[in-house]
Structure prediction request, 472 residues.
Amino acid sequence: MYDPKSLKAEEFINHEEIMDTLAYADANKDNLELVDSLLEKAKALKGLSHREASVLLACEDPERVQKMYDLAEQFKKDFYGNRIVLFAPLYLSNYCVNGCVYCPYHLKNKHIPRKKLTQEDIVKEVTALQDMGHKRLAIEAGEDPVNNPIEYILECIKTIYSIKHKNGAIRRVNVNIAATTVENYRKLKEAGIGTYILFQETYHKESYEKLHPTGPKHNYAYHTEAMDRAMEGGIDDVGLGVLFGLEMYRYEFAGLLMHAEHLEAVHGVGPHTISVPRVKRADDIDPDTFDNGIDDETFAKLCALIRICVPYTGMIISTRESKAVREKVIRLGVSQISGASRTSVGGYYEPEPEDEKSEQFDVSDNRTLDEVVRWLMEMGYIPSFCTACYREGRTGDRFMSLCKSGQIQNCCHPNALMTLKEYLMDYASEETRAIGEKLIEAELKNIPKEKVREICADHLAKIEEGIRDFRF
Ligand code: SAM
Prediction:
């Protein structure tokens, strides 16, 4: 039975409800009156239900699809403005006891080098990341209770936060590790993590079990209910995601929205972010063996609909996507992107030797952070290294209310400008700095409150003198 308030995976991600939703969407995809009314309803910024959203996804009328894109673009402008937050992944270990068939870290892969960063390695890697200008990391690890126990992850987080190199500091560590216990989530919370990210991979239980044939990750319910345990353990911000390509995208999209509805219904706050990874080529993985790959157009439509249907949730696009695809979807509502990523265990401090490659998957966007920052600015975006919300305690529903009250222009906007200024002073190339300085000057004027504008201008001048870490 479908029940968004249930704590049982098979009730809040109910298969029959998804199948009924898809049938309803198919039956109504040409019902343009309904489609128009849903687009109208979406304008109220209260989101759309999984059923409503699925009708929009099924609709192929070119004029309506264009309206979806326009609306997504409008929402992005109105609520997120032109800021794009930057982060980098840091792979701690690729030891893994699971059998995920799409991931080269699966246990049966005997030729991929298994690596695990020591605390000394972390100092080197994080110093290199700080020297690029990163302030926000997402740590990643395979699941292995012997090699990567929670104590190891906690020690790594502590080390990462302790490294202060020149003007560098990692101010927010997001965590993408396997589903775990309430007790371990509590420990992660105490360690000061930002968002806990866990991709569902697929919401389709039968496929999930086939795609995860062995290891603890095989347990669909334990994996799907992880965010409830994370929230029970005190983690306010959780990040959802589907690995597109594994199952039918319409099924996944309905499941993703049902998951968001469930979190809202039970915990009073939806997901902080949604990631939209697509399966990529990797060591012993050929993405073409999966039948459900989606083309760039469908991918863009999914991004636009996530923006419209879950308006206050951040959206993340990684370097799995090429520059061209990122360019296409950023304007549709993306709020965070990774830059200059390495998906290997180590590799920031010095490149891995050819015969020792430990990458999780191929990266399509190989540009440096300086190039990514410049590219964003040339497209009219403000690259932001801001982590203020998390450090000011604006997490969970407190962040959402900031978003909903439209205060972003007086809070996130100045913070973005100040962190960009820090980046320009400390890490940017001359060319990037010149573009950035002009952008900051122009963007300062867009802060609505005069007092905030004055304080921001004052802080910007102090950053120029060498003082760091101002925030609203
Ligand atoms: N081991 C943790 C877990 O099971 O959730 C951490 C996740 S892993 C380091 C990060 C994510 O990479 C996975 O959740 C999966 O969605 C994604 N991934 C794995 N193989 C991939 C591939 N071949 N292409 C793209 N993404 C992949």
The CA atoms of residues 189 and 235 lie 6 Å apart. The longest strand covers residues 83-93. DSSP finds 20 helices and nine strands in the chain.
